[in-house]
Amino acid sequence: MTLIENLRAEARAAPESGIVAVMNRGRDRDGMIPLWAGEGDLPTPTFITDAAARALAGGETFYTWQKGIPELRQALARYYVRHFGRSFAEEEFIVTGSGMHAIQLAIDAVAGKGNELVYLSPAWPNFAAAAGVAGAVPVAVTLDQSGNGWSCDVGKIEAAITPRTKALFVNSPSNPTGWTADRETLQAILDLARGRGLWIIADEIYSLFHYGDGRAPSFIDIMADEDRILFVNSFSKNWAMTGWRVGWIKTHPSLQQVFENLVQYSTSGVAQFMQRGAVVALDEGDAFIVEQVERARAARDLVCGILAATGRARFTVPQGAFYLFFAVDGITDSRAAAFDIVDRANVGLAPGTAFGPGGEAFLRLCFHRRLDQLEEAAHRLAKWMTSV
């Protein structure tokens, strides 16, 4: 028996990222315009990095609160008052080592071997992969796509539920589609979860990246205090902190000790100097978020206009997040297309095959970058479309 055969089957089955495979193809090419990853091109602003640097220089390098320093949990409570209009105690927040870590802990808390977790697809692939590593079974329910855009049929979610189902994972606004659940859809999902005794893992990382009137609708708008909802989030997108790997869980205060224990036995906490930067991001970063969203809106409109003019691209203008999920007439294998675009257009996109059922014919373009670079990338893509 080989070494790899001695590993857990769930570990062996963890899939290679379909996004990283394309990145590896083109990351070192001269002139490459990389639109494959889910991040903007701005570095973390100095008002955040300066706070972290001061804390680092001041010796805040020791073990700290595993659930997060009190100042950060209090800042999270203030953030929710400002943006969601609801007051939560600091005991309802757990600081995690990234949004991905928050998702892993949420899965660990509600599901294990043989349990099922229902999620909406196309989806960011890490949730389904993390569920599989935990021994649970991810069950995809595809969003519907038509000329009117992406939509969620809650009846399809209900049909996917079995006695083994433990939770529903809802990412809105969605990566990669930009689909954003309206209040009525969220209420229908919440009613279903309540009726079936299921948890909801709510990934609302893009709630402020919304191109409608204010932030996106949230389960926070309709939930009761005792609802079984775990909110997972991250500092990565709003404050240009992708490399910091700091996130949080918002949960019921009675669950604080459980999640603190899960942090203890996974990362044992987030570095205190990084948390100091996160406090400042929350308390002083609202204007930066507004600037980022308006920058992304202009970028979205630019890219959509250029690709639509080709007559070959099919897409719905995204309501939220900062991705264009588009198909090209005549292209059915998005993985092969993504590699071809790297080779012939020198533009990096993520293939829709990486995002699960319903995404196979699509490509994902991250438009959260400066306009001149996006304009060049869009014209290169338009030229590629006319040649295939």
TrEMBL record:
Superkingdom of the organism of origin: Bacteria
Protein name: Aminotransferase
Keywords tagged on the record: Aminotransferase, Pyridoxal phosphate, Transferase
Upper lineage: Bacteria, Pseudomonadati, Pseudomonadota, Alphaproteobacteria, Hyphomicrobiales
InterPro entries: Aminotransferase_I/II_large, AspAT/PAT-like, NHTrfase_class1_PyrdxlP-BS, PyrdxlP-dep_Trfase, PyrdxlP-dep_Trfase_major, PyrdxlP-dep_Trfase_small
Enzyme Commission code: 2.6.1.-
Names of required cofactors: pyridoxal 5'-phosphate
Family designation: Belongs to the class-I pyridoxal-phosphate-dependent aminotransferase family.
Ranges for domain Aminotransferase class I/classII large: 32-381
This protein's record includes keyword Transport: no
